Amino acid sequence: MDDALIEKLGILADAAKYDASCASSGAKPRRGGKEGLGSTTGAGICHAYTPDGRCVSLLKILLTNHCLFDCVYCINRRSSNVRRARFTVEEVVTLTLGFYKRNCIEGLFLSSGIIRSPDHTMEQMMLVARTLRRDHGFAGYIHLKTIPEASPWLIEQAGLWADRLSINLELPSDHSLKAFAPEKNGGTIKAVMGQVNERIVEAKEERRRFSPAGQSTQLIVGADDATDRSVLETSGTLYQRYGLRRVYYSAFSPIPEASSVLPVKPPPLQRENRLYQADWLLRYYGFTVEEIASGGEGGMLDLGIDPKLAWALKNRERFPVDVNRADREMLLRVPGLGARAVDKILSARRHTRLRMEDLGRLSSGLRRARPFLIAADYHPVGGLTDRLDLRQRLVTPSSQLSLF
Amino acid sequence: MHTITLREGADLDGFRQAVRRLAAARTAPDKVLWSVGAPSLFGDDATPASDNGAPIFLPQAVGQLIETVVCHSDPERYALLYRLVWRVLNGERALLDQHADPLVHRLERLDKAVRRDIHKMHAFLRFRALPPAPPGPDGGERYIAWFEPDHHIVEAVAPFFVERFESMVWTILTPKGSLHWDRQRLITGPPAERPDALAHDRFADDRFAEGWQRYYESTFNPARVNPTAMRAEMPRKYWANMPETAAIPALVRSAPARVQAMLEAEAAIPRRRMPEKAVAAMARQAPESLAELNRLIQRSEPLVPGATQAVLGEGPEGAAIAIVGEQPGDQEDREGRPFVGPAGQLLTAALEEAGIDRGGLYLTNAVKHFKFVQRGKRRIHQSPTAGEVKHYRWWLMTELGFVRPRLVVTLGATAALALTGRPVAVLRERGPMAFDGWNGFVTVHPSYLLRLPGEEERRRAQAEFVADLRRASALA
Q: Which end of chain B offers a freer environment for a tag, N or C, measured as fewer CB atoms within 10 Å?
């Protein structure tokens, strides 16, 4: 590894960091053995955290940041003045193996600017994955960004080597996509998501290996005027129709060399956080988009409180909930109680009538849950949920995301 | 009062022996004093206590909890675990379900702490390459790491590192014991001190460590600085052994200024003009000739591993009839040409009988690679699945697009599926059929004729096949 390669690594890691996806989970257990290298564990591992609080799990780089596309939100668009570099297939392989052997990473996340043509670019990316797997017996995680404009066979070849494929939708509506990413097409992107989903489902049935950790996508929030409701509706569709594993939300963040079309001021990072919370409610807590959106105003989520609490405050008549009697579905709707705490409650209450002291051992969110609960020794007096100042009492000033 | 003295570290064996004896003697937990102080297991190959008590039966979850919690550094761990065992043996079999019970709650927290410690060691341990040793059988690459776990987890993490780095030679040193792997055997060793080589010069002569720091700096986004979230997951105590963390103070300090600069900078005027030619050329990425397409097919990987080579279509472009079979067989796979095996010979004979010149046809397969299972020396043909057929469909359609036949004849169900996209009952639906974009004709695959049992039956089926070929030829 010489100075020139380190320099390129700096440029091409910087160029890749706006992709929020980092997971190394979901792969089937696999090991490289005496001749190969590496293993996948299923759950994935975060090997470091950067001072932005994000985890470093995969070596996330671009093959090149030269690009023929001109998507305004992207630092690598062809009209940007950013420094450019390009790795060879061999260089990416060397970096991946070198860092992996030092236990810095779980594997590789490879994306790329479009050079020459989408097919050419996709083929180079596929070659990196193939070389790692076939020539080096690499058993670590490989996440390949799929270029939707590439030919179907190339995308399918990529799925033979990758653990996860992802296609970034980037903007929730076709109309924004047209305005901000002239070379992209929402229809093409969704068609490829459909194709990839079909292959994944088939391969599972036919017991073949094809992108076993599924596919994911990313939506940029705050670059266009889409409301949270429409972002969540898009996600809901993506989960249902294309079987996506994850939708990542990336609050549009200021980039060097920004385009003049974009808002100068970034949206609050809290918005991204609220969308992730809402996404969780959608997938694991049995909420509908409509219910989540009703917690906020005008299609936007409440930035001050989490979406579950927001919903509960607007639906006070459904509380308090008796922890010794309520069903799982309703317990999941209590602010402050997570899915794991709910499962512990269900298992513990078979043996004993739960009191507040017990709940304190079962959940770490009891302070927020208290006004919405009834326990064996506790009944909120005078209907705590009727108090107008309940919101103020529950909100702690958030310092988590401030700049300092 | 019984006093049980266990070894330093995670003495699972010693604890198990003690519990068996205590349980057999029905000794209550408050009659036992647990202490730690016997010499460590490391560097001492004494066998465990010899008076094996009878095994006791515990729910699986209890056994798992014990295995983890004995690794904890809390001196009370054995006493707590024995209280758990005692209660489980005395009528509370489902005690672990009672998450609100104070004892269970405390043990769950110990369990969680150990698991977290193991997880963090898997995550934050960094290997450093050592200068090559005197040439050995393994090419000389050796790796070393220093790590300071909170609990006695050195043996618990070993399987992870052996599995992941089985092909490497490495040593892990910690104040609680050490591990050495030579690609064959795992050797556990005594507690170690931080080696000088790792304490000083951060990058030693391993440039990947330097490259990794550059990566770490570059992947950080100053517009989202949030050190609290970072420290929650990666507390300071781990930083000393992770080379990349040296960059943290400077990254945090410079972040606000970097963001301010980005916000103040006016939108830049693009340096380069619109690369019109290149953008236009981008659209022309599809292969422009059959030869180019064939090169793509040859370069790509079979969907099911095993085939020697891709078997391409054969025959003149512009042929009036294209015949599409299922997939190459054993002989086709070796020779790299379609329809040369037994079924191919049968097809050739039938074509001759129908008065059709094989050389004037375009012959190809729906799937381009041979799929088989090995039985001794024989490779037994396996039908492609619907998913595999779909995977090859884009190639087949592009291929036909170059050949532009007047009629596409499919042999057998697989080819018919490829052209129609739906399952076709060949015997019932044989004859002319409109395919998506092509005039088509469905008939049986010659291998079907080979499989028929009776002579008479086969003769009849062959005559029908020849008749089909004649009809198709007339249609074209």
A: N
